[in-house]
Write a structure and sequence with these properties.
By secondary structure, the protein is an alpha+beta fold. It folds into two domains: 186 residues, no CATH class; 96 residues, no CATH class. Helix content is 29%, strand content 27%. It is built from ten helices and 15 strands. It has a ten-stranded antiparallel sheet with strand order 3-2-4-5-6-1-7-8-10-9, with helices on one face. Strands 11-12-13-14-15 form a five-stranded mixed sheet. The relative contact order is 0.11.
Amino acid sequence: MHGKILLRCQRVDAGPLIERAMEAGFPSAEPPARVRVDFEPWDVSAPWTDVVRDCDDLTLSWGKDSHAGLEWRRKWDYVLLRRKSFEFTPESVLALIRTWPFEACITDPVHLSWFADSGYKSGHGWAFALKGAGHRLCSERILDRGPWRILRDEEYDVTMLQFHDLDAPADVALEQARPGHRLLRADWHYVGHPLVFRNNVEAVGYKPSFYDPGSRTSIVLVEGREVSAEEMGVAAATRVHQIYPEPVEQVAFVFMDEAAARRQLPALWLYGLEVRAMTAHGEQRIDLEYEPPPPPERPAWVQGC
């Protein structure tokens, strides 16, 4: 694939990440043409680790038309690296980022026409990567069963999910990517800042009913309604973002109607959530007895890679 590439690394150790990226020649092997530190022009002679330690914002750009760039924002805890023209494959990108200190890495679409498509509303592009502790951002059950190609680097504990064939035309690539994008909704799955996540929690109407301090479990009562995929995703993500005063290690959905609980059990199980139901014998946890079907067959484009 030859084209634009953008990598947005989140939950980062910014100084070492920038140094390792620059050592690898990405986004450029040349010294930056322009440097701005805390939005002021800067002549950098110190190591990037020292620069990042002493500032809150860093912007680097290369070339007259800014053909490459790098941004770091302490407030939002991300490093963004971009290049307008770059030859890459999923394997080469995995090899590039494997040593970088981050937890999640989101890519932009390689096809700009996606943005003109009213159906494209995802924060994801062609791939998404998790590293080390970042794997807690997503249920392993989703990783194993999603409609994507999985690439692994065992040495550095990196998992990359490829959403579509990079050689596919824009419209075909979008159709291949949509199922994975829906399952890994970026607005709840990981955005990098608690304030943004709080807004998403409010937007989907997620409101825990009780809290069990003994098991550190948020409890959501469900009666006369269906739990949306958005609410499931937000519930799962509260275990990572920790936006409440009390620590949350698990979220339990307690259904007043057993039939409704069993109907939604497969989806809730996929997100790693606890499911309880009010039965003739009282409240019972039913997700422990659930036997999921085998993982679905990978899409044809994945099998062809």
